[in-house]
Design brief:
Chain lengths: 333, 309
């Protein structure tokens, strides 16, 4: 039986190769690192895996599209788990299943990726410039203030009254949280005017612009990104460690981190971390196509946070950078 | 551009120190402020360092008027935009792309991200047209209508390597979405100031020469070192030619003529957008270089929703 024939039984399924985030060639072996595992395969497979990566997913295997050798190794790659079969694009799932299978199973990985930048460890061990931490506070000020740009927009674009109300209440509880970060910066020595007139970094603006994009796209895209962001502030134990260690390493005034603890405690009290489950529980059916789009947004948000960290680290560790950043207003108004 | 008042200048016999906080820049053979400005304006690295450090803020170009002539603004804006674009033109990615050792993944990744960015015209140009003032409406409607199919040119080039679905469903980098989204936001806020930022991007495609100029040299070198990339380069070239033939290098000038005068607040917003778009453009290029150099495949796909999960 040829490889094509062997696959014909399942030719109505769609397959894909997981995203390969890193690869290493070690003699006769090829190590492929995906988001959840490292696969060791024969080095001779490299060309075929690349071919499959750039051909899949296809619904029906056409031998003209893929070489016989690639088709031959496909069953083996399926066994290893590198190649996975996708859900039927015409199917759907209840909201609770979406929460469990598409959100809960991925959230830790998304958060780990989001905070994988070396700057976090460098702040913890005191090797980063203190300005990177101060910059983080400035950008958090803008990021929380920009909740006013995306949270009401999500309400305006939401067609489901139940979710609309949940979002409105969420907004009511969050809209003015930027004052926590302003107070932290004031405790460090910046004036209120300096903080409020500062200019956010491009990727800080993109954090809220991505949320605005998601709000316009679909309530599920917005809600999953919001849940990811809430997920970044619920692990109190690790945050206690982070802020306390950083404060000691850089001998920061206590007032610099006190408002941050107040903010974390308030978020915990409101229980915003459970909001996404509540939203999903009330959704009867989510098409696979819609679920894929929402997962794409969550994944993009995770990458966005990583790119945000890079932007903050790059800018605030540069001794020539202005702190605070000021707006470009070259005309006297 | 003029120096900010708070900069301290220490005049020595045969050189000048610029003192700003803990930093000191030494300028040799300069004896007065005008000459100092000339030196600063002719020394790119120093100018960029000083600009980033805030030396060029609060420039007083138009006295205490409440509005300015739009054509005067056009000139100042172009000067400002071109000076900022120097960093974009000197970005490391351009050498990486045309190098003899250039990376297949980087070249294809660059084309994919550029496709997503150009396809983003469906968003920002549409928002701009829909939110425009009556003065700006004819310009922005025309611009959108003339540009909305340009993503297809890149898609055609990429179709030699990927299926149409793979191209359209590939996931853009967050830094690419960042560039599209900031244009979306500008377009929703103020149509003139949106175009002031978009003009910077147009400047990167429109050259004054009759032939392709430096862009043509770049394409020639890219193809000389990467013959396999010919279909891509063909699409890059087709897009550049089309942009140049549309005469969009005159668009912003025409808009300024229509506006006649601008409030200083509008002028400042346009300048702020211009600075921001260059920052986003730089991050767009950083993102491509960082992600695709040495990556296994340029195709970025979303997390799969697995059967039986």
């Amino acid at each position: 039986m040829s490889a094509t024939e062997a696959l014909s039984e399942t030719s109505n399924l769609r397959y894909t190769i997981k995203d390969i985030v890193n690869f290493r060639e070690k003699g006769e072996h090829l190590e492929l690192e995906t988001y959840d595992e490292i696969y060791t395969l024969p080095a001779s497979y490299k060309k075929n895996i690349l071919e499959l990566k750039e051909t899949l997913p296809i619904k029906v295997f056409n031998p003209n599209d893929i070489t016989e050798k690639s088709l031959e190794i496909l069953p083996q790659l399926k066994k290893t788990g590198l190649v996975v079969s996708l859900r039927d694009s015409n199917s759907s799932m209840p909201g609770t299943e979406f929460y469990k299978e598409c959100f809960s199973k991925n959230i830790d990985r998304w958060i780990d990726n989001a905070f994988s930048h070396s700057a976090w460890q460098e702040m913890m061990n005191g090797t980063a410039d203190v300005n990177v931490f101060i910059g983080w506070l400035f950008e958090l000020f803008h990021y929380t203030k920009n909740a006013n740009r995306h949270m009401p927009l999500s309400v305006a674009h939401c067609a489901d009254k139940r979710i609309k109300t949940l979002f409105a209440v969420h907004f009511k509880e969050e809209w003015n949280h930027y004052h926590f970060f302003r107070r932290a910066l004031e405790a460090y020595g910046f004036s209120r005017e300096e903080v409020e007139n500062s200019d956010p970094l491009p990727m800080t603006e993109q954090m809220s612009n991505l949320m605005r994009e998601a709000a316009r796209k679909d309530v599920l895209c917005y809600a999953i990104c919001s849940a990811l962001l809430e997920g970044t502030t619920i692990d109190n134990e690790s945050y206690d460690n982070f802020y306390e260690i950083v404060r000691e390493k850089y001998s920061l005034p206590k007032g610099t981190i006190k408002p941050i603890y107040e903010h974390l405690e308030l978020d915990e009290k409101y229980g915003h971390a459970d909001l996404f489950l509540e939203i999903c529980e009330g959704i009867q059916s989510i098409s696979v196509e819609r679920a894929e789009e929402a997962v794409k947004y969550a994944s993009l948000m995770s990458e966005n946070i990583l790119a945000w960290s890079e932007n903050i680290s790059d800018y605030y560790s540069n001794k020539f950078s202005e702190i605070p950043r000021v707006k470009a207003d070259i005309f006297d108004a | 551009m003029r120096l900010k008042q708070s900069v301290n200048i220490e005049c020595k016999n045969d050189y000048i120190n610029l003192l700003y906080g803990d930093y000191c820049f030494r300028i040799d053979d300069v004896s007065d402020r005008d000459q100092l400005n000339d030196v600063i304006n002719s020394s790119k690295s120093l100018r960029v360092a000083l600009y980033d450090h805030g030396f060029f803020r609060n420039e007083k170009l138009f006295g205490n008027d409440t509005s300015i002539d739009a054509l005067e603004f056009y000139k100042k804006h172009k000067e400002f935009a071109l000076s900022l674009l120097e960093d974009v033109y000197e970005h490391e990615i351009w050498d990486d792309l045309v190098s003899e050792k250039s990376d297949r993944s980087l070249i294809l990744g660059f084309a994919l991200e550029k496709y997503h960015y150009i396809e983003g015209a469906h968003e920002h140009m549409a928002y701009a047209a829909a939110n425009s003032t009556s003065t700006m409406m004819p310009h922005l409607a025309k611009h959108f209508i003339e540009e909305y199919t340009h993503g297809d040119i890149y898609k055609h080039g990429l179709s030699s390597f990927f299926s149409p679905d793979q191209i359209t469903k590939s996931t853009p980098l967050p830094t690419t979405r960042s560039l599209i989204n900031i244009l979306n936001e500008f377009a929703m806020e103020n149509s003139f100031c949106y175009y002031a930022a978009n003009e910077v991007l147009q400047l990167t495609e429109n050259v004054d020469n009759e032939d392709e100029g430096e862009i043509g040299d770049f394409y020639n070198l890219l193809i000389a070192n990467n013959e396999w990339a010919e279909p891509l380069v063909k699409s890059f070239r087709a897009h550049t030619t089309l942009d140049q033939n549309l005469g969009h290098e005159e668009s912003f000038l025409e808009m300024c003529k229509s506006e006649k005068t601008l409030s200083l607040a509008t002028a400042n917003l346009a300048i702020s957008n211009t600075k921001k778009i260059v920052e986003h453009l730089t991050i767009f290029l950083d993102g491509i270089r960082d992600f695709y150099s040495g990556s296994f495949s340029p195709l970025r796909t979303a997390d799969p929703i697995i059967s039986g999960a």
